[in-house]
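Suppose a colleague, Dr. K., hands you the sequence of a protein chain of 269 amino acids and asks what its three-dimensional shape might be. Before reaching for any lab equipment, you can write down a predicted structure in token form. Begin with the sequence itself:
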Amino acid sequence: MQATPGDDVPTLAALGVLAFVLADVSHEALGHGLATIVMGGRVDLLTTCFLRSSGNYSKWIPAAGGLTNLALGLCSVAVLRFSSGWGVHWRYFLVLVAAFNLFFAFGYPAYSGIAGFGDWAAVISGWEPQWLWRVLLVQVSVVGYYGSMRLLARPLAPFAKTVGVPTTKPLDEARFRRLTTIPYIAAMIVACLAGALNPNGWHTMLTAGLPAAAAAFGLTQIDHFVDSVSNPSLLEAVEPVRRNLFWILAATAVLIFFVGVLGPGIRFA
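The predicted structure, expressed as tokens, is then:
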């Protein structure tokens, strides 16, 4: 896939990998892991797809993963309001961090509600009537996912413009789609590579690894919401995301750790 001239494909892929890994590790380690320790439990195994613990249990442990993603996503959106003077790479990285975290946070409830599997299924376990709680999970997911797409339309809109083209011209939908599709595809590839090495078997990639990245599908559809931004045609275009070795090397190092170490899992004595 070729990006719009000036937008470097490897750099866009690197930004997508870093943003996705941050969302995934925040969900498993910072969310589930920290909640386990706070509740007096013990972390036994940490992977890219799940965290295994023992000892004291609380419903806050499965809930903490999604809540952490929600908090990180909203914080990223808040920081974006003050990032107009930052470099384009940092700005777009924040956009992707917000997207992967918010879509993960709001996509998971629907997955649990429909499949009866995963974090939020564990949260509502034992609550009756089950069908009602599962329907509520799906409803919360749909409303939150839709709201996240509208929320991210504003910081993403300037990236739908082309530098050097008059601001009154229509948005560059081709550039916008490529800027969002490349990081999304890169994230799914990384999720599959790491999930295939999971100690529970490669099928975990299909039930947990891939869905974590696929949840961000809304990122590729936000161009349909840009019209909701007031006067989008008057927004100043963002410069191209040019090749940056710092981001590429950082993503390479993180990729090796994520796939090679967290993929098979870290066992704690």
